[in-house]
Amino acid sequence: MFTICKITARLSTSRQVEISYNLLGNVLHAQVNGKHMDLYKKPLEEVDRFLQAHRDYLAEHYTAGDFIASGPQTPRVGGVIMIKTECRAAVDSIIAQDPFNVNGIADYQIVEFTPTMFCDAVLSNFLIEFGGIW
């Protein structure tokens, strides 16, 4: 027998989170405001097996100046990486190297955006320099 549990929480008047999981604690589905969130494709035990390799990959790309920020989602159903690069092909090349990608741990949703407001001028110059934030 396979039991699925669901938690729905209204965090504010404009934000609602819904998470479905099985009794082993594996997240099966997550939504914010009715929109699907990217999920790890494997249980967290499998994610954790490749976590150090993933962190080494992140460190390599921070050193190269490719990454702006990264971290896990809350709840831990996936993660986010902000990449600074000139084109989508470069993003695809960088993501292809991620141990989570190579080992089938995670799916990726690439979203390009154009920042228009900044907390300070230094950050503005840094982000606009390459013309693309992913």
How is the topology of this model organized?
Elements: E1 4-12, E2 15-22, E3 27-32, E4 35-36, H1 44-49, H2 51-63, E5 67-72, E6 79-83, H3 88-96, H4 99-102, H5 121-128
Antiparallel strand pairs: 1-2, 2-3, 3-4, 5-6
Mean pLDDT, all residues: 74
- Give the tally of β-strands: 6
Radius of gyration (Å)? 17 Å
- Give me the strand/helix succession: EEEEHHEEHHH
Structural class category: alpha+beta
Low-confidence stretches: 1-8, 22-29
Helix content, binned percent: 25-40%
The major β-sheet equals: 4 strands, antiparallel
In terms of quaternary structure, what is this? Answer: single chain
Strand order of the largest sheet: 1-2-3-4
Overall shape: elongated
Strand content: 25-35%
Distance between the termini: 42 Å
Query: How many separate helices?
Result: 5
Feature tags:
30% helix; single chain; four-stranded antiparallel sheet; 134 residues; elongated; alpha+beta
What features would you describe in this structure?
- The chain is an alpha+beta fold and 134 residues long.
- The protein has 5 helices and 6 strands; from the N terminus they run E-E-E-E-H-H-E-E-H-H-H.
- It has helices at 44-49, 51-63, 88-96, 99-102, 121-128, and strands at residues 4-12, 15-22, 27-32, 35-36, 67-72, 79-83.
- The relative contact order is 0.13.
